[in-house]
Amino acid sequence: MILVQAIIQPIRLSTVRSALEEAGYDETMVSDATGYGRQRGQTAVFRGNEYRVDLLRKVMLELIIDEDDLDEVIDIVRSSARTGTKGEIGDGKIFVLPVLDAIAI
């Protein structure tokens, strides 16, 4: 089993979830995340004062899949999470981790 963690922009969450559900991957966990990568935050103006927002809001989508499904899931997430035709800085990251066992409570 494989754990796929996708950190994406919040505005793309419904698109990514819909694409995964259509392909039969409907068991996911979603949580809020903040951080930055190559973006290094953003500059904003509030009441005439300029300030820097270092931590940007993101969403982490996690799902456990069979190893055979990994390439398909990565393609689905990558294509549905992109904001441009080739993707833009800040669109997100996908992490792949091995899962030794999953135990129901």
TrEMBL record:
A Pfam family that the UniProt record links to this protein: P-II
Gene3D superfamilies, A to Z: 3.30.70.120
Domain of life: Bacteria
Transmembrane annotation, as ranges: none
PANTHER family: NITROGEN REGULATORY PROTEIN P-II (PTHR30115), NITROGEN REGULATORY PROTEIN P-II HOMOLOG (PTHR30115:SF11)
Protein name from the UniProt record: Nitrogen regulatory protein P-II family
